[in-house]
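Example record

One chain of 124 residues, shown exactly as stored in the release files.
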Amino acid sequence: MLYRRAAAAYQKVHMETSPARILDGLLDRLLRDLEDARVAIEGRDIKGKSQHVDHALRIIGELVAALDFRQAPELCHQLSNLYGFVEECLLEASLRLDPRRIGEAKRVVELIHESNREAAGLTS
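Predicted C-alpha cells for this chain:
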C-alpha cells in the first residue's frame, strides 16, 4: 500500500515537472550558491567558500551534461561556452578569493535564467 502511494506520488511529480521547470530550479540554486560563495569569500570563510563553489561547479557539470547537441547544436554550443565561462570565473574567484569574478559569473547565470523563464513562460 505504501509502495503504491509513493509510486503514484512520484509519477504525478514526474508528469507535472517539465524540463524547463527543472532547469529553472537548477539555475535558482546555482544563483544561491554563487551569492553564498561571494559572501563567504568576502568574509574569508574558506570552508564555506569551498562548499558553495564545489556545489555550483557540480550544478554546472550537470547543466553541461544535459545539453543535447543533436537537438539544438548552435544553442548548446553557446550555452556550453557560457557555462565554461561561469566555471572559469568560479575557479578563479576561489583561487584568488576574488568576489568580483563571482559577480561576473552571476550576471551570466542571471541572463540564462531569465531567458529560460521567458522561453518557458515561467515569468509573471
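Notes: The helical segments are 2-16, 19-42, 46-65, 73-96, 99-120.
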